[in-house]
Amino acid sequence: MNTSIDAHGMAHESALQERAAVVVDGQPGTLVRVGDVIDARPMSRLQIGTVGLCMLVAVLDGFDTQAIGFLAPAISKSLGIALTQFGPVFTAGLLGLMAGAITLGPLADRFGRKKLLVLSTLGFGACAFLTAFAATLPELLLLRFLTGIGLGGAMPNVVALASEFSPRRHARVCVTLLFCGMPAGAVAGGLISAALLPVYGWHAVFYVGGALPAAVALVVLGWMPESVKYLIARGHDPAQVRQTMLRIAPGLHSRSITFVDAERQYSGIPVRHLFTEGRASKTVLLWIPYFMNLLVLYFIISWLPAVLVLNGHSVAFGIEGITAFSVGGIVGSLVQGWLMNRHGVAPVLLAEFLVYAVLVVMLAVLPMSEAVLIAATFGAGAAVQGAQAGLNSLAAELYPTSMRATGVGWALGVGRIGSVLGPAAGALMLLHHWDARHIFLAGVVPGLVAAGAVLIASFNKAAS
């Protein structure tokens, strides 16, 4: 499932290496690949700041996801909407995430990562702010869907930007670090909601949820440059590329350099290219674990507390369980890039899916003390959310620059189908009076399917 340079890409790279000199601004100049400059230097303040801003956007995603779940009872009471009617409100947000990822990802490959990130972040911030003024169920449904579109459009761009600004040796670490932001944002969403709700009401949380994205979007607009790899891929002004490269590597004499990229550039509809030149099987084998892992992730987030209560534990213990799962996700995402660099992508992902399956079986069939249960949910959180961070990193490196946001966006979009079906599957099992043991055991199946896809992909790579 790793990227490889096809025959056309190798020929293109060879041609770049053979050309000795060009004239830049009337002066003799040299061709330099931007990747070589980025890979040869420590990360600059610009690169670290760019990854940090991308992580803030991921934090805002987690904040929004947790806040709406926490606020639903207060909104229900305030607006006179039955709490049982909030299922479609949650689903609307997830459907918006899917729609935003598959539509705005390809637009970013056409119009620019920075531009779409700013528009997406402003969009979900504005819709979150307007949610404070919603007075009816249809208004909530519409605003949650529109908020989801903005969030869905932002995520492919933060992955692409973090990947393209990072040296190759740090790219996996930088991309997986982004996804510490989502569980961290979920924790922040719960804490901020708990602090504001009793004093200022549920509206105040949405004011904060609207103001923070607007502030981040303005910083991105004023400070963060566009990806130089994207600028080269789209044939933008070389002076703009040199200006950004000087911020990355201030010692370069940029007027005597023309910056190039060795990757082959693709035109036309970027979604089509996900299935050409040998990428079809890689794309499908990426989508399967994306779908299965997000199904598992949202199933657990939605139903773990309820399943623990069904198993005879207190409501407070159910909250402790989901908290342990989120903290495990932060830890798993923190170490994911380092593990993949050290042991390889496929072995780490395969191990995580198998560890998750073993822990779920243990939860289902073995008698455990509450302390061991917490440890098991922590481990499951580290495996599932660490694997998700790893899949996002893999998607970023699987596709070339000219289709990277499209590839990440569509993988996230397909995964979001799983995020919708996961909570629905849990509701269906409870409706049919499944006990906690069988609900846990059902959660093993998607983990094993994801592991199977990773295994097949690794066999395909070895055979090629």
Automatic annotation (TrEMBL):
Say if the entry is tagged with keyword Transmembrane.
yes
Q: Which residues cross the membrane?
A: 51-75, 81-104, 116-135, 141-162, 174-198, 204-224, 284-309, 315-335, 347-366, 372-395, 407-432, 438-459
What GO molecular functions are on record for this protein?
carboxylic acid transmembrane transporter activity
- Where does the Major facilitator superfamily (MFS) profile domain lie? 50-462
Q: Which Pfam families does this UniProt record tie to the protein?
A: MFS_1 (PF07690)
> Where in or outside the cell is it found?
Membrane
Q: Does the keyword Lipid metabolism apply?
A: no
What keywords were assigned to this record? Membrane, Transmembrane, Transmembrane helix
Give the CC-aspect GO terms.
Answer: plasma membrane
Its membrane topology is listed as: Multi-pass membrane protein
The superkingdom of the source organism is: Bacteria
InterPro entries the UniProt entry points to: MFS, MFS_dom, MFS_trans_sf, Sugar_transporter_CS
Q: What Gene3D superfamilies would the database entry show?
A: MFS general substrate transporter like domains (1.20.1250.20)
Name-wise, this protein is: 4-hydroxybenzoate transporter
Identify the species of origin.
Caballeronia choica
